[in-house]
Fold this sequence. Notes:
Elements: E1 6-11, E2 22-29, E3 32-39, H1 52-60, E4 66-70, E5 74-78, E6 93-96, H2 104-110, H3 120-145, H4 149-159, H5 166-210
Parallel strand pairs: 3-4
Antiparallel strand pairs: 1-2, 2-3, 4-5, 5-6
Helix pairs in contact: 4-5
Amino acid sequence: YNPLEVIPEFNAEMPGTKKGDKVDYVIKKDNEPIMLIECKHHTYNLDIHQELQLLRYFHAIDSSRIAILTNGVKYRFYTDLDNRNKMDTRPFLSFDITTVTGNEAMMKELRRFVKTTFNIDDIMPAAEELKYTCVIKKFLMDCMTEPADSLVRVLAEQVYDRPLTEKRRNLFTEIAKQSLNQFVNERVNVRLNSAINVQQQEHEQQIQEDEPPS
């Protein structure tokens, strides 16, 4: 709520760029811009946005290391891990406010951006890990519906020692999809059963403690 820290329509002009370029919001710390926020309408599909505006603003305001693209529902956080002062094309953190409740892992990451504890030197290593973790998780998620051909070949090599014909490749694609889904379901069931057993043991222990001595 401090107008000296949260500034709308902040000037982001650069020589040779569009005159009057302004980023929707800038957040300052110690009088230096540390975060840029580009806001879209809540119906706007962030997937089709090329981040060109935000990329220009990021380059123009070199004291900022964090850029946020949002439509008010979905938020995408960017930084410059690949090249200093050039915004990465992939976000290192993304969340949807309608589904973030109860996601303690996400809340832990968002707490890094609280004003009282914000420290860019702490955020950058975490951002690098998050960026690549998100890409790998998306790859694995995609593989559960449509396994990449390269992954199918690697998996097939573990159990099949002959050249893959197209018919065999199609077969192993389906086997890979089933195997990945079964593996995830089995791991989930193991975690659930473990949690249930712990609760049952705690319940039985509580009953024993509540029983009067004979």
